[in-house]
Amino acid sequence: MEIITGKPQEDDAAPTCGGRSVWLRPPPATRNGPPLTRERITEAAVALLDEEGIERLTMRHLAERLQVGATTLYWHIDTKDDVIDLAVDAIFAEAAVPGERAGSWRDDVVALLTGCRATLLKHPWSAALPLRQRPVIGPNFLMWMEYLQATLVRAGLTGRHVQAACWLLYSHVQGSTASQSNLRWTDAERHAAHEQLGRHSHRYPTLLDHSYVLDDEWDENFRLGLTYVLDGLEAQIRSAS
To answer: 67 partner at 20 to 30 Å CA-CA among 106, 131, 192, 201?
Structure first.
């Protein structure tokens, strides 16, 4: 087993994309004292992120929450990026894949992505993460992605089209939840912005006509957008058959 003995990294160090993923390293042997496991660390990290946001996630702060020293935490986890990897995979355990296929591949995709969106909204910090900055290879995420890609194959997509469709759909979920989770406009600000558009209606007539800044129909926009994407995929499948 490889034992990491180097100096712990600073909390604010840049993400390290080239190192071995936490999922590719075995957990260290248990030392004397109360057991500190990946499961305990992950549970505490998700709670911290839910309550305080990603800005407050540091190895020191997480160690305090676990009531251990920072050195003890570093014995189990190399970097803050590892903590985030574990936390992201943990919430994908909540975005469960449908237990039974609905019969229609479209219905299965809608159920899968709608559940994922609900989970990401429950954990707003997750929606803004650049999840592809490091490979996401935790078991829960991989199970979720396996279901999505298997459903696309069942629909009739082949080869490169499977990956392209997969990331298109995933980007729709992530983009929708990131926008909803991070937008911090009050009603007063929305209406002030709408009035501003009205004063410049000659420049932005379409935005004004469609109440661009007043729109907050997140659920409906997600549903319609997903319908448009699935319609396009269905057309692609028909044209290739």
So the answer is: 131
